[in-house]
Amino acid sequence: MKRVLALGIARGLLEIKQFNRQRESVVFTVAFPVILLFIFGSVFKDEIAPGVSFSQYFVAGMIASGLVNSGFQQIAIMIPVERDLGTIKRLRGTPMPAASYFIGKGIQVLYSMLLQLILLMTCGKLFFKLELPTQSDRWLTFLWLVVLGTATATILGIAFSAIPKSGRGASAVVSPVVIILQFFSGVFFVFTQLPQWMQHFAAIFPLKWLTQGMRYVFLPDSFASQEAAKSWELNKILLNLVIWLVVGTFFAAKTFKWSSDK
Amino acid sequence: MSAELVIDIRDLKKNYGEKSAVAGVNLSVRKGEIFALLGPNGAGKTTTIEILEGYRKKTSGEISVLGIDPSAHISKESERKWREKIGIVLQTAGDAADLSVEETVNHYAKYYSRARSPEQTIDEVGLSDKRQAKIRTLSGGQRRRLDVALGIIGNPELLFLDEPTTGFDPEARRAFWELIRKLRDEGTTILLTTHYLDEAEELADRVAVITQGRIMEVASPKTLGGRDHAMTEVSFLRHGVREVIATATPTSEVARLEREFGGEIPELSVKRPTLEEIYLRMIGSVQ
User: Quick one: B2 and B75 in the same domain?
Assistant: First the structure.
């Protein structure tokens, strides 16, 4: 167990080193949400509730979808590429435990997530009147949302990586899933203004719940009355993330492919 | 032979649906030898090797690789211990392009409990002056040498080398052969596949020829396909026309010709069959 963790951390540090050296991926995963924030924040300046501007609402959504971008999207695209390159097959031939590989991926996701969070929160505060929470229970919720959200998104990314047949086609398979979920989950629009069927569909997946959780963290408590259930539903958020974490782990372990040949 | 067997395969079969890729292979590799597996593409070479490496599961048959059947269900702990003793150099890999040679070798050393010194390993594969170089900047041959470094970093008892010198220049091949012989002298057992017959001849203690999923013959490179008894070709020019005589006694044949020509024989050549010719003849006979 100690060895699995030690090698997992070693892999995580190596992955971070590689990530930092791939300028395009740093820009894509870290700066892209910030660019979106500037576009949407500049276009929609209205207040959607007393004391809550759309850009504040949007920052909360972007932070949540950052977890999905750097976890699910990045990993589900990266693994098929690594499969094509033979990285994973080579690793499979060493005594490195499979779990260490997954831990390494989680660490790298957490790292790119932190970069993204710092950038989003700084820009949100400087340009879009984002209020950082002052109560410790909000920060505590923020912490478990980030940690649990990262774990769930990463493991679902690993599970989903079995679907793209090649690294080249991976982003075409993965990105639409993420973009559709973002539209359905109240990242780009106010969730309660979406059609009912969209809301119900989005409620199956974690992004809607992560977004809601981030609104709890970053919006005034009075906004709870504007939510679909008229409350923050923190326990439901926790439940949804845990269920997907378990389901994702099951599928990741079952379907993970070590190489791209049959 | 009572020598310890590192690999022992009995009647190994692998089917993909109706198609049979490996149709009953028997093979033994002794401790400390370099064993080359030769065969045309699609003969079942890679499938056999990947079953031995644990990448694919057999359909039937008995396998022992360092005492373990990699197709059987084994505990994580015994698989780890087994993998500690095995080194694999795959055919192609293009990974970790953004890391340096040193970073990559150092990292892989962490996976093994009895790893070689990364520094020394980099020297041995001839990448000393490329330590800091990013992998993406390496030439094909240099990349291949890095693959070998990663294959041997764990100090394996058994090393799989799948077409290791593809893309090497002649000088790099010689250096690479030296390295492989050195590993053998240190006690490493090596299973090699290659398309270069001269490489098999240089390195291998024994070779096996596989065609259509079966082993045709196992022998030393000197005796494969009856090579040691094969006819020698003596060729020369008579009245401007090349004549070829196949003979089992080339020395007396040349002596006879010398008397006939009363001295120098025009454009004389005496050629024993190369391993490649024997191999192609064997392959040709089944196709």
Answer: yes
Residue A67 distance to chain B (closest CA, Å): 25
B183-211 confidence digits (pLDDT tens): 999 999 999 998 889 999 999 999 999 99
A54-67 and A206-218 helices, crossing angle to 10°: 130
Q: Is the pLDDT of residue B280 over 60?
A: yes
Is residue A242's pLDDT more than 90? yes
- B7 and B65 part of one domain: yes
Tell me if A262 is assigned to some domain. Answer: no
| Residue B283 predicted with pLDDT over 90 | no
Interface size A-B, in CB pairs within 8 Å, comes to 62
pLDDT above 50 (res B2): no
Q: Tokens standing for A54? A: 């759309």
Cα–Cα dist A183/A174, whole Å: 15
- Do B243 and B104 share a structural domain? no
User: How many independent structural domains does chain B possess?
Assistant: 3
Q: Is residue B57 part of a domain?
A: yes
Whether the Cβ atoms of residue B134 and residue B163 lie closer than 8 Å to each other: no
Domain that holds residue A172: 2-255
* Chain B residues within an 8 Å CB radius of A95: 80-81, 83-84, 111-112, 154
B8 and B52 assigned to the same domain: yes
| CA torsion through residues A19, A20, A22, A28, sign | positive
Q: Range of B127's domain? A: 93-155
d(CA B8, CA A248): 40
pLDDT tens-digit series, residues B102-143:
999 999 999 999 999 999 999 988 899 999 999 999 988 888
The answer to whether residue A93 neighbours chain B at the CB level (below 8 Å) is: yes
Q: Do B96 and A93 touch (CB under 8 A)?
A: no
Q: Is A85 on the interface with B (CB under 8 A)?
A: yes
Percent with pLDDT over 90 in chain B? 68
Answer whether residue B175 is part of any domain. Answer: no
Q: Which amino acid is at A126?
A: L
